[in-house]
Amino acid sequence: MTEFRFEPLARDGAARTGRLHTAHGVVQTPTFMPVGTAATVKAMRPEEVAATGAQIVLGNTYHLMLRPGAERVARLGGLHRFMNWPGPILTDSGGFQVMSLSQLRRMDKDGVTFRSHLDGSEHRLSPARSTEIQHLLDATITMAFDECTPFPAEPEVAASSMRLSMGWAQRSRDAFVARPGYGQFGIVQGSVYPELRLESAAALTAIGFEGYAIGGLAVGEGQERMFAALDVTVPALPDDRPRYLMGVGKPSDLVGSVRRGVDMFDCVLPTRSGRTGQAFTRRGTVNLRNARHQDDQRPLDEECRCPACRSYSRAYLHHLVRSEEVLGLMLLTQHNLTYYQDLMAGLRGAITAGTLDAFAADFEAEQALGDI
Ligand SMILES: CC(C)(C)OC(=O)NCc1c[nH]c2nc(N)[nH]c(=O)c12
Ligand SMILES: [Zn+2]
After folding, report:
1. How far apart (Å, rounded) are the C-alpha atoms in residues 287 and 280?
2. Distance from the alpha carbon of residue 150 to the mean position of ligand 1, in angstroms
3. Which residues are catalytic?
4. Cα atoms found within 13 Å of the Cα of residue 255, Cβ hemisphere only
5. Under a CB-based contact definition with an 8 Å cutoff, are residues 213 and 143 in contact?
6. Average pLDDT over residues 315-341
7. What is the rounded CA–CA span in Å between residue 340 and residue 227?
8. Which pTM value belongs to this model?
9. What is the phi/psi pair of residue 350, to 5°?
10. What separation in Å is there between the alpha carbon of 91 and the centre of ligand 2?
């Protein structure tokens, strides 16, 4: 039976490659997790998600508890069977989504009561219930129930929010049912305050988790303050456990965060912006709604292996986006996820070869070129 285990491999500065062994397969790190909020990576069949190179996807407790319901997914055999994704699935714990998606909510020291943004029905999430829902979903990796401290926050506010989350981390851990190959991650909070980040990292390490997420970033603090928070937080986390930066990010965020020792990422950017016609390429972002593409026979990115770049012109992609055709959503999502996965593969290769600094310099130079 596979034990849940993170196996560090090569190192280059603070960066490292690794293999994450789970009950649902092995994940090569650093890794980017496509977001599959409602048990689907939007506009993509699972085979296509796998073809991009993705090995693990993210699901959301908040959305799935509201629809179709956690007990129903359990009755139907769990999330892997339900969405036909046999690989590892990490589910977020819901607190963050409640605060950003539902109205009419009441926070107390034990959890949050809220109304569904779908039909107004009342629901409650607590550390124990969130952990139980993720168990019902059969999530490979369960996230602790936390509060994502809004930004900006005064130090006292950030401190009490973080301490609430640390108490919830203990209750989440107490409710977690250990199984071979399954893991639970604690989530570091503390906003942009080094001493709070360190207090949070210490509290979670004392509880003991199979991995550690860094939450409360990418909330508007900007890349410089995000990197500064990583410089403080990453060294305070156990070296032999995966580090997961939640909600991040743009390609340059990924490169800078991998250099600072982050192993796992999730972000809606490649899928959500793909649906609006924004493509990520080696030479920066390309807005395919722009009329400059309407007669352009070239592929979006000559070097890209994805179906959009192999078989279609910019002119056609522009037409699909302008016409709001479904195929446009599909092709641009496939392209963006392929670009993100190839960037992660490039980072893994550079760490293994000890050439990460050169890789990062080339990446920044190419991005600065801009599309032609
Ligand atoms: C605004 C965006 C989504 C880009 O980033 C963040 O909010 N970043 C923080 C974040 C994302 N997902 C989380 N889940 C949980 N449990 N806790 C968190 O702090 C976060
Ligand atoms: Zn492509």
Report:
1. 9
2. 10
3. 92, 266
4. 20
5. yes
6. 98
7. 20
8. 0.98
9. -70, -40
10. 28
Mutate to test the pocket of ligand 1, among 97, 125, 148, 272 (most ligand atoms within 8 A of CB): 148
So what's the ipTM on this one? 0.96
Q: Which two tokens stand for residue 297?
A: 């026979």
325: closest CA among 43, 46, 51? 43
Q: Is the dihedral of CA 150, 156, 160, 166 positive or negative?
A: positive
302 CA to middle of ligand 1, Å? Answer: 34
Is the CB of 244 within 6 Å of ligand 1? no
Q: Which residue has better confidence, 192 or 148?
A: 192
pLDDT for 141-190, tens place per residue? 999 999 988 899 999 999 999 999 999 999 999 999 999 999 999 999 99
Query: What digits encode the pLDDT tens for the residues 76-127?
Result: 999 999 999 999 999 999 988 888 888 768 889 999 999 998 999 999 999 9
pLDDT of amino acid 104:
65
Q: What b/e string do you get for 47-58 counting C-beta neighbours within 10 Å, with b at 16 or more?
A: ebbebbbbbbbb
3-state secondary structure the chain: CCCCEEEEEEEECCEEEEEEEECCEEEEECEEECECCCCCCCCCCHHHHHHCCCCCEEEEHHHHHHCCCHHHHHHCCCHHHHHCCCCCEEEECCHHHHHHHCCCCEEECCEEEEECCCCCCEEEECHHHHHHHHHHCCCCEEECCCCCCCCCCCHHHHHHHHHHHHHHHHHHHHHCCCCCCCEEEEEECCCCCHHHHHHHHHHHHHHCCCEEEECCCCCCCCHHHHHHHHHHHHHHCCCCCCEEECCCCCHHHHHHHHHCCCCEEECCHHHHHHCCCEEEECCEEEECCCHHHCCCCCCCCCCCCCHHHHHCCHHHHHHHHHCCCHHHHHHHHHHHHHHHHHHHHHHHHHHHHCCHHHHHHHHHHHHHHCCC
Please state, as a whole number, how many other Cβ atoms lie within 10 Å of the Cβ of residue 121. 9
Burial of 42 (0-12, 13-18, 19+ CB in 10 A): middle
Residues with CB under 5 A from ligand 2 (ion): 304, 306, 308-309, 335
